[in-house]
Amino acid sequence: MTSVDLAARVAELIRQLREHNYCYYVLDDPQVSDAEYDLALNELRAIEAAHPELVAPDSPTQRVGAAPSEKFTKLRHPVPMLSLGNAFDEAGLNAWKERVMRLLGADAALAWVCEPTIDGLAMALTYEQGRFVRGATRGDGELGEDVTTNLRTVKSVPLVLQEQRTENREQRTENREQRTENREQRTGHSAPSTEHQELHSEFSVPGSVPTQIEVRGEIYMRTADFEKLNARLAAAGEKIAANPRNGAAGSLRQKDPAVTASRPLRFFAYGVGPFAGVELYSQWQLLQYLGALGFPINADARRFERFEEALDYCRVWMSRRDSLAYEVDGIVLKVDSFAQQEQLGVAGRDPRWAIAFKFPARETTSKLLEITVNVGRTGVITPNAVIEPVNIGGVTVRNVSLHNADYISERDLRLGDYVMVKRAGDVIPYIIGPVTARRDGSELPWHMPATCPACGTPLERIAGEAAVRCPNFGVCPAQLVRRVEHFVSRGALDIVGVGERQAELFVERGLVRDLADLYLLHAESFAGMEGFGPKRIANMLAAIEHSKASPLHRLIIGLGIRFVGESAAKLLAARFGSLDGIMAASEDDLVALDGIGPVVAASVRQFFGLTQNRELVEKLQNWGVNPTVEVVARAAAGLLEGKSFVITGTLPTLAREQAQALIERHGGKVASSVSKKTSYVVAGEAAGSKLTKAQELAIPVLDEAGLLALVGVGEIDNGAFKIQNSDDEPTTN
Ligand code: IVH
User: Fold this and answer.
1) What pLDDT is recorded for position 640?
2) What digits encode the pLDDT tens for the residues 288-313?
3) Do 500 and 408 belong to one domain?
4) Gap from CA of 355 to ligand 1 centroid (Å)
5) pTM for this model (two decimals)
6) Helical axes 552-559 vs 566-576, angle rounded to 10°
7) How many whole angstroms from 336 Cα to the centroid of ligand 1?
8) How many other C-beta atoms are found inside a 10 Å radius of the C-beta of residue 475?
9) Among 378, 505, 507, 697, which residue's Cβ finds the most Cβ atoms within 10 Å?
């Protein structure tokens, strides 16, 4: 063959292979056998090996071209990837629809697009001049990870965009109908209402490839593929994934793209980020357009003009979720028109134009084998159920918290009972109640022990609370272990090298009888203790030493005073400057602080009212703990110096944290409740009692624009804001 013929042959092979891939992975309708596919692929490989100059970057042989990488670099999403608000029942969906109608006007022409919510990982894929150039995970919505080379290996991710032949699209509709029939045969359910728009509707789809487009969608694994993968991994002695979602996440985040290539990952496209060179005006049109460009789109998506039909769709799929080839956790409902979407905008992180309807949680029965009790840091006793291990939605559940004795007696849970266990999505599992019909009389009632299992002290029930506690505060070894764990934890003194196991050992060996004893540890303390090599001991002692100069608020957190979290600790540190200062403060001094309420103040007084805690502070000081008081960096202008704010409701563009940071940068303070001391209340949508209180007390109320104007910030644009004060770096959030 001449080189011209060869180049033409390469082009033809690439065309054929692409077509086969598309039919196989996108249309789910293979046109050739695996053997035929391999034959073409091998021919292409052979030519490319002999003529490297003919290797096209988008050749199907190049899906696994890249070398393994050490880590994934971060990519900033040009437009944040939002999350979705949830509705758990029809009332929630109706409330959402009412809000949409209220905001758009009762006579607005509305249409709704419903799509199953695939349980996978959200991705943003960028195409330039029709070529896949970049792919990133959602990350926190702002910053994702660059997983381009791994995404290239996913066969249903097109490397090149092109208008697909129309037969293909018709073909896909037929396949869908075929699949629906199969499913009906399997499940005995009938298809949802046929009064919907099919994907090959009369909507006008742009006939060209965009110059630039960011396609958003979900990387996922089919349930059957996931099970095969797990069987393969188990046979190879490797770690198996808990559920398809984790399987997909683990497969995508491999350092070596060749490993990702060997995993059965798939992609569904359902959204769009920034784009250019094409006109798009609705979600439904977008889906068709993405399909036309060669992306897999969900064949079960539907568009409805009556909301009642959308509700029907949700009902039908709720009963049919198991007939899908992949796991779904519900249905996403979207307002179809992009113009209306824009009009509705975003509240916090959630668009007002879409909502996730969650299917009910998964439930199973298991046997209640035993109830153990756990002693917490403040002495609270928590009963835990040990159940016969069960798999619920892909996660094995063995231990379930029972919260408190009332929880058990209210449900009349007995040892030996069969119990209903529920796990909703990522929510921790819990026990709904006993299956009384399965009782055989051998079940035994359970009683909270009368004494602490760790120290034997009689337990007390605090009036008005469900909790039972061990009152041997600060001495009970179980409490002490938890207190040490808390003291060294990241949010507190952050002593690296001391964790749960070390805390248990120190207490058990009598090395630590109160928190201050940590500072008396020395190399010899660990003589003969397993797992403590010289290097380890040196690092640990260095970390303990280093913690002596921690910021004061961290030490306050570390003491574990009830109700005193980070924000209260910061306020106390800033106001009183030392532990002595706080100990000397009266309850009145404490409540005078904006942001410290009567409950916190009483708890602080109670804590330091105990001799052992005063002694603890004295010891900490004697052993050289000398915390620093941080001065919070502020905008030089200090425009809001001495002003106190309360934020309530959802602001149109700023997340609450962003608004708080903005106020603090300008010297203001943010408190959680409205009082006479409040200077301004910043109110957004759905502001409640705090707004009413502000009005009662005649405190000025600002909206977001008012707040921004107050600090001299302008140019609010699509959730991005710029700080325009001369002393500030321009920032974009
Ligand atoms: S739309 C601004 N559509 O669900 C709205 N999300 O709960 C962005 N998901 O982060 C999401 N299928 O990972 C949308 N058809 C679908 C979806 C879908 C699955 C995931 C996605 C998103 C999460 C939100």
Assistant:
1) 85
2) 999 999 999 999 999 999 999 999 99
3) no
4) 9
5) 0.53
6) 130
7) 15
8) 14
9) 507
